[in-house]
Amino acid sequence: MISLLDDTDNEVIITVTGNLLKQGSGIIPDLEKAWEGTLDEKLQIRLENLIQDIQFNGVRDDLNRWIKTGAEYILEGAIYIARFQFPELNVSKINEEIESIRKDVWIEINSNLTALEKVKILNYVIFDLHKFSRNNADFYSPQNSYINQVIETRKGNPISLSIVYLSVAWKLGLPIYGVNLPKNFILAYKDEYRHRDAADESEDILFYINPYNRGAVLGRREIDYFITQQQLKPHPSFYIPCSNRDIIIRLINNLILSFEKLGYAQKITRMKELLRVVES
Q: Rounded distance, CA 273 to CA 211, Å?
């Protein structure tokens, strides 16, 4: 079937391409072998586009499955977004790095500590021991939004640093959640011992955490000040936990903004397709 990709009949090419797309990622090694075995530039481009389409479909399908099964672990969603740019990224290495951070926190933490004391340990391990920090030099770089690059360089933006923080907290069973604050992204530590339903969910928040500022602890007053300073219209969602799906939507929108600044029209189109998957 691959040999028919150099057919002169356009209808044959369309039919063959459609059938090859249905094969999924398992056919990629054969397509790569075909690319290496031809000097026909037109066929090489056709093969490259087909490989990229198959890889993108895989990302889209995995992201869709993650959403439909509850989007429980934020790191998984972030990995799928990173695979858009790095289809062969080493997932095991990412998981090993997060597990290493978790172990370093677990050694120091115990149930007798207060929530604030636990966060101080998290901050020390993530920002001092493992050297994660914000990327001031190139804030709008797409690399700041790809979790594999963030773990490799130890630099990121508010969303990606929060994803690292949340991934470690989730593994430790700590009640830390994302908060969809515009022009920033912060975390909330919920009162794990409170068992009543509050009309205002923000009443369940003990304090907020800013991973983009080395895990600085904030109160509601600081959030109010930030909203006023940024001339934002106050909204309840600025104070309460958001879903993992909301976090991935923010991550995708960050990448769209980065691609717009770089003029990558095709990547913008693909990212918007992933955005539709998550939003729907």
A: 29
Q: What is the pLDDT of residue 149?
A: 97
Q: Are 114 and 172 in contact (CB under 8 A)?
A: no
3-state secondary structure of 96: helix
DSSP state of 230: T
Q: pLDDT per residue over 86-116, tens digit each?
A: 998 999 999 999 999 999 999 999 989 999 9
Helical ranges in the chain per DSSP H: 10-23, 28-36, 41-68, 74-85, 91-108, 115-123, 147-153, 158-172, 220-229, 244-262, 265-279
> Rg of the chain over CA atoms, in angstroms?
22
The gap from C-alpha 109 to its chain's centroid, in whole angstroms, comes to 27
What pLDDT does 200 receive?
66
pLDDT for 4? 61
Q: Is the pLDDT of residue 74 over 90?
A: yes
- The model's pTM is 0.89
DSSP 158-199: HHHHHHHHHHHHHHHT--EEEE--TTS-EEEEE-TT--S--S
> What are the structure tokens assigned to 183, written together?
């022009």
pLDDT surpassing 80 at residue 19: no
CB 205 within 8 A of CB 192: no
- How far, rounded to the nearest angstrom, does the alpha carbon of residue 170 sit from its chain's CA centroid? 15
- For the record, the structure tokens of 68 come out as 């439909």
Residues 6+ apart with CB under 8 A from 78: 147, 160, 163, 248, 251
